[in-house]
Amino acid sequence: MDLEVGSGPNPIRTDSEIVCVDLYHDYTPQAEEQDRYYKVKLTENFVRADGCFLPFKSNCFRLVYSAHTIEHSDNPTLFLRELVRVAKEKVIVKCPHRKGHQAKMPFHKWYLDENWFKAQYPSAKIIISQSEKTFSITRRVLVALFRRNVDPLYLFLTKISKRLADEVSSLDPKRPVELTVIIHKHL
Questions:
Q1: What are the tens digits of pLDDT across the range 21-31?
Q2: What is the 8-class DSSP label of residue 138?
Q3: Domain range 2-184, CATH architecture
Q4: Measured between alpha carbons, how far is 96 from 176 in angstroms, rounded to an integer?
Q5: DSSP-H helix ranges across 9-63
Q6: What are the boundaries of each domain within the chain?
Q7: pTM (predicted TM-score)
Q8: What are phi and psi of 183, to 5 degrees?
Q9: What's the number of CA atoms in the CB half-sphere (13 Å) around residue 30?
């Protein structure tokens, strides 16, 4: 069984092999600030909870995934520790890079970068997307991986590394947009 924390209005998966967690069961306040109202698609395994205090036993989910949630958390250190605590094998966290234009939104409490994540988990694998084009490709690939239970590192290193390298080489490397952090647990 897998876990998505901060699933919001669009969980990555809605099958019976995933538990979706969000603090808000029927809307997200960020959507209100953006003049949009999103109904959360409730799955059969939806749990209303704070990502900093997950109501699960340790090491109970094969994979824990969270996209664009840690920057909204009251305590990102505790949030990340909770994700790692409940994960059995792997944690994948995505967030805007602190230097990217999407980081400084009024409803973001934290502006994180690769140094912050490395200070928390030195062995974490960090992928920095450097443009909106790379960001959308990375999101599509991670969604596909999450749905198919494929190891993201294997796919990145074998099937799409050249495609991403070709696209990133034509972009300004000084403009990071998004971080993807992968933490492998070793029990």
A1: 988 755 555 54
A2: H
A3: 3-Layer(aba) Sandwich (3.40)
A4: 9
A5: 29-33
A6: 2-184
A7: 0.71
A8: -115, 120
A9: 17
